[in-house]
Design brief:
Elements (H helix, E strand, L loop, with lengths): L12 E4 L5 E7 L7 E4 L11 H7 L5 E4 L15 H15 L4 E6 L1 H12 L4 E7 L12 H15 L4 H4 L5 H13 L13 H16 L12 E6 L8 H9 L3 E6 L6 H4 L1 H13 L1
Keywords: Hydrolase
Protein name: Alpha/beta hydrolase fold protein
InterPro entries: AB_hydrolase, AB_hydrolase_1, AB_hydrolase_fold
Length: 281
């Protein structure tokens, strides 16, 4: 029997959309009429998707991750707004030939997914929003300042900034951080191009602007939504998750205890079970 690829070994593919951008992407799992499109976090490339989550979802679904325009090995210049990132996401999905998708979105990816749904309300069947919040949500405009402070702290302590940004400072949080960061290094060949400072700055500027904009009317979406987070998210404060769940008329909410922004990575086994059940319902 042929060896099944994992997220650490699956090849990177490329597709050129109508907007002229060539997107880098990875797809894993059995072919499905409705795949899961994964929208990643701030300054993430293909190598920043958690292998345990991607492999877990691929047991029952086709899951596709991709680099935003100008990020990693995707072509073009960095998008300057969350709406532009959503337009790019739509172009990528259209290039793949899908008219209906499920979405799994984390952090910045959740902002993008909300704008995408506003642009094409019938495209998304089911949506998971993790570690994220609504447009204009509490503390979202503060993400740039927090990010730069934690990056400086990470520089002097010789760790990845996600160690501080995604996890709590408890012993449990520190252990989860180390395990998560180790998983991100499992892919040893054909790794993605590192994300540059220009991309980080462009995305942070877009997040700050989005955090100051007026809230969207999410009550118009009747799709099932799973909102999920840790109980101590410093990056996109946890109250935003409660707010999101109230704004969507057909939402479920789960909050992980003793977890931060990266709660789904800390509790990846439980998250995969919840996500599989949610998409199958």
């Amino acid at each position: 029997m042929a060896h099944q690829p994992t997220y650490a070994t699956v090849p990177t593919q490329f597709i050129t959309a109508d907007n002229g951008v060539t997107y880098a992407y990875r797809r894993l799992g059995p072919k499905r009429a409705i795949p899961i499109i994964y929208f990643g976090h701030l300054a993430s490339n293909l190598d920043n998707a958690d292998p345990r989550i991607m492999d877990g979802m691929a047991t029952q679904h086709e899951i596709i991750s991709f680099d935003y325009r100008g990020v990693g090995t995707s072509s073009g210049k960095d998008a300057q707004s969350i709406a532009d990132m959503a337009t790019d996401g739509l172009a990528f999905i259209k290039a793949l030939g899908y008219t209906k998708v499920d979405i799994m979105a984390f952090s910045l990816g959740g902002f993008i997914s909300q704008e995408l749904m506003a642009m094409n309300p019938t495209l998304v069947r089911r949506l998971i929003l993790a570690g994220t919040g609504p447009r204009g949500g509490e503390g979202i405009s503060n993400v740039p300042g927090l990010t730069y402070r934690d990056m400086a702290k990470a520089l002097v302590t010789f760790v990845d900034p996600k160690f501080y940004l995604f996890f709590t400072s408890t012993e449990t949080g520190k252990l989860a951080a180390r395990q998560f960061l180790a998983r991100l290094k499992e892919r040893t060949a054909n790794r993605d191009r590192a994300v540059g400072l220009g991309t980080l700055q462009a995305q942070l500027h877009a997040i700050k602007r989005w955090g100051h904009e007026s809230p969207a009317d999410l009550s118009v979406f009747d799709q099932p939504v799973l909102v999920i987070n840790g109980d101590n998210d410093r990056m996109v404060p946890t109250p935003n998750s409660y707010d999101l769940a109230k704004r969507f008329p057909n939402a479920q909410l789960h909050i992980y205890e003793e977890a931060g922004h990266g709660g789904i990575f800390q509790y990846h086994d439980d998250f995969v079970k919840r996500a599989l059940a949610f998409y199958a319902a």
